[in-house]
Amino acid sequence: MTSFQDFGLADPISRALREENYLTPTPIQAQTIPLVLAGRDVVGIAQTGTGKTAAFALPILHRILANRIKPQPKSCRVLVLSPTRELSGQILESFNAYGRHMRLTSTLAIGGVPMGRQVRSLMPGVEILVATPGRLLDLVQSNGLKLNQVEFLVLDEADRMLDMGFINDIRKIVAKLPVRRQTLFFSATMPKDIAELADTMLREPARVAVTPVASTVERINQRVLQVDHSAKATVLAELLRQEAVGRALVFTRTKHGADKVVKGLARAGITADAIHGNKSQNHRERVLAAFRTGAIRTLVATDIAARGIDVDGVSHVVNFDLPNVPETYVHRIGRTARAGADGTAISLVAGAEELGYLRDIEKLIRMALPKEDRRTPGQRDTAPPAAHRGGGRPAPRAHAGRANGAGEGPKGPRRKHRRGGNNDASKFNRNEVNRQQPNRPSQSGGTAEGLQGVSFLYRESRPKTQPNRNQRPR
């Protein structure tokens, strides 16, 4: 297919596409749209930015228009699940844009906002519902939503939902859906757990794969700066001053780390803001809007919060913390060099641990990244830790629990810190690493996570001289 007109989409949809200046379909669209129009279940392997939202939204809208019926109260005809609030919002915007001439009924169900408004919007029934799994289950359990009328189920970013601990929520949701439905399953990667989940949900699915995960955009200038850990904040500030930055997206591994980077940049006289799971939905939307318009030129984000950030004009991606999963590096740097522009990806690497992560990344992308050594003489680590020698992974972590309604990762037992003071590190949630670091299957079948950051923070936040008040006096 060389044109959207070749798909034979309904006239209201074709008009909307012309208004959006959609002319030539992307590879994922060219392969997926005919299959969905034919009623097939589909497993699509595609990264963010390949056009997969239109690949499932356009044929679904066409099929809804061909059989237009009024949805029943508290129900929906199309259910789209995504891992984050931002991505959910962008998916709904796309449905509304493509269906602007259809008088489409649609709504959003995400965490971080009052549930009452969502309950009221679902009362008469809607055709399109885009939701995060946790909030969707909250609505079902409160009798605000029924799933027995769903005709189309879409799982977007399935691998990220698995990483965030949504697997149990997804199974509960699927168990409440009609057996006779069309299911579309999209994921950037297809590890064993994701493949098994797809097999239980889909019927004889067609498989579509585009943009292999190891590919990186050729227009991205990638380089590595080897620095001392204590100098990362200073080096970042220097980069943002010296580079010709249009918009810079800085990635950290944790929410606590994102806030710390913003404060460090502020001390250096650089305006920046952060988005992550601890920020309110209004704050996240406001900051993201400012980043799109250029009012904020530097945005600090965690991997989970960054899912759904589709902003043209990102000239630089900076890995303040190198990811411990190689595929995540590819997803991160793919935020730049969009719409035919050039881009720069800079990684700050400190210590033997991150050198091990770097070697895994270079192995995945099949290229050695140019390196500049800015470390203090005498502090230079050259050998990766034992866990990384021979391509190994960090030790596996415990399985993630149920994810929350905000689409921000698994819930865990709350721990009250009885220590005084206002130390940010003392408030650090032990589940932070669950929410911000994606799982990776290990050779032994477990999941791989770097937990060194968590233990470090806890050592910093609990002085050795302070007694443990949870122990009973003897």
From TrEMBL:
Bias type Polar residues, positions: 434-446, 464-474
Domain Helicase C-terminal: 219-383
GO terms of biological process kind: response to temperature stimulus; ribosome assembly
GO terms assigned for molecular function: ATP binding; hydrolase activity; nucleic acid binding; RNA helicase activity
Keywords for this protein: ATP-binding, Cytoplasm, Helicase, Hydrolase, Nucleotide-binding
InterPro entries xrefs: DEAD/DEAH_box_helicase_dom, DEAD/DEAH_RhlB, DEAD_box_RNA_helicase, Helicase_ATP-bd, Helicase_C-like, P-loop_NTPase, RNA-helicase_DEAD-box_CS, RNA_helicase_DEAD_Q_motif
Segments forming domain DEAD-box RNA helicase Q: 2-30
First-level EC class: hydrolase
Record EC number: 3.6.4.13
Motif stretch (Q motif): 2-30
Reactions catalysed, as given in the entry: ATP + H2O = ADP + phosphate + H(+)
GO cellular component: cytosol
Domain Helicase ATP-binding: 33-208
Domain of life: Bacteria
Chain intervals with Low complexity compositional bias: 383-403
Region described as Disordered: 369-474
SMART domains: DEXDc (SM00487), HELICc (SM00490)
Signal peptide stretch: none
Ranges of biased composition (kind: Basic and acidic residues): 369-378
Family as reported in the entry's similarity comment: Belongs to the DEAD box helicase family.
Full protein name: DEAD-box ATP-dependent RNA helicase RhpA
Organism: Bradyrhizobium erythrophlei
Taxonomic lineage: Bacteria, Pseudomonadati, Pseudomonadota, Alphaproteobacteria, Hyphomicrobiales
